Amino acid sequence: MLVTASAVSEDLYRGVINKKADDTHILKISRYTVAGVAIAAFIIALNPDSSIMGLVSNAWAGLGASFGPIVLMSLFWRRTNLQGAIAGIVSGGVTVIIWDYIPLVNGQTLYAATGLYSLVLGFAISILLIIMISLCTKAPGKEILEEFDDVASGRLMDIE
Questions:
Q1: Which of 9, 47, 62, 75 could, after both became Cys, cross-link 30 (CB 3.0–4.6 A)?
Q2: At how many degrees (to 10) do helices 118-136 and 82-101 cross?
Q3: Over the stretch 62-87, which tens digit does the pLDDT of each residue have?
Q4: What is the pTM of this model?
């Protein structure tokens, strides 16, 4: 919970949303995040059929579907951009949540109805959205493309 709170408050909120946020505001965001994660964990734990292995499996599916595709696409496809990355991360995580937790087929989750591990579908949807959104939005800048090419070809740029 502390790692999540730190990531949300520092990396997401201060890093992206409000770069000038003061420490008091960051502390509040961190506390809200801890409370939100605790409530989500409590709701998941209410299910008497859930097990630690099942929860860990779902957590890995969510992480893998959210971050695996963007890591691969960032390393191997030079056209990947910020908008595509965000679309891929969000779509992978949301797919896993819907697949594993929302009863959509006769009161069953899609996992229970199909037996397909949510990571498989989440990973595929994430990659597709990274490609589609990256192609529909502005390409990365010249400097980013040059850096990608330098790293891909083995020429490393000096970091100043």
A1: 9
A2: 150
A3: 999 999 999 999 999 999 999 999 99
A4: 0.68
